[in-house]
Amino acid sequence: MALEAWFMDDSNEDQRLPHHRNPKELVPLDYLAELGVLYWKLNPENYENDSELIKIREDRGYDYMDLLDLCPEKVSNYEEKLKNFFTEHIHKDEEIRYCLAGSGYFDVRDKDDRWIRIWMQPGDLIVLPAGIYHRFTLDTSNYIKLMRLFVGEPVWTPYNRPQEEHPVRQKYIHGLTYKFGETVKAH
């Protein structure tokens, strides 16, 4: 099954719910690609020896990897950490996540500042571009095992919104302007 993504509703209900609009508005992979979000479907049961994952890592320079289990039983201050992950932010570098087990949501902003919810399930590998506003939460399963990939030593510094003047945000916006040939809203 391919990656599922959709435009979110504006509800303030539990962040772990799907938050589909009514009617549902699915987002195709090519629209995510226009935003700079890259996607691969891999075999999570063979991640240690997966030739496609090895090629992606080599081609993109991802030389550091670690694994992260997120669930109430394994993470101290679980609710607080989940709240921090759900705060809208950008990074100076790509954010690369590969779901090995469980499931969760990455939300990204599109060029019109609408939230798109990306449902990560086992085998989904996504790359969020530097400078894109995003956030993360688990779904109601309350469990996900992620592989985190980095170029060089891991740096995971969030820059919470607003960051419109941040150079990496400006570069991202400039790239969208170039792709879409129109002025992108700077929110």
UniProtKB/TrEMBL annotation:
One of its GO terms (biological process) is L-methionine salvage from methylthioadenosine. Its cofactor is Fe(2+); Ni(2+). It is a peripheral membrane protein. It is an enzyme of class 1 (oxidoreductase). GO terms for cellular component: cytoplasm; nucleus; plasma membrane. CDD domains: cupin_ARD. Pathway: Amino-acid biosynthesis; L-methionine biosynthesis via salvage pathway; L-methionine from S-methyl-5-thio-alpha-D-ribose 1-phosphate: step 5/6. Ni(2+) binds at residues 89, 91, 95, 134. Keywords: Amino-acid biosynthesis, Cytoplasm, Dioxygenase, Iron, Metal-binding, Methionine biosynthesis, Nickel, Nucleus, Oxidoreductase. It comes from the Eukaryota. It holds the Pfam family ARD. HAMAP family: Salvage_MtnD_euk. Catalyzes 2 different reactions between oxygen and the acireductone 1,2-dihydroxy-3-keto-5-methylthiopentene (DHK-MTPene) depending upon the metal bound in the active site. Fe-containing acireductone dioxygenase (Fe-ARD) produces formate and 2-keto-4-methylthiobutyrate (KMTB), the alpha-ketoacid precursor of methionine in the methionine recycle pathway. Ni-containing acireductone dioxygenase (Ni-ARD) produces methylthiopropionate, carbon monoxide and formate, and does not lie on the methionine recycle pathway. PANTHER family: ACIREDUCTONE DIOXYGENASE, ACIREDUCTONE DIOXYGENASE 4. This is Acireductone dioxygenase. It comes from Arabidopsis suecica. The lineage of its organism: Eukaryota, Viridiplantae, Streptophyta, Embryophyta, Tracheophyta.
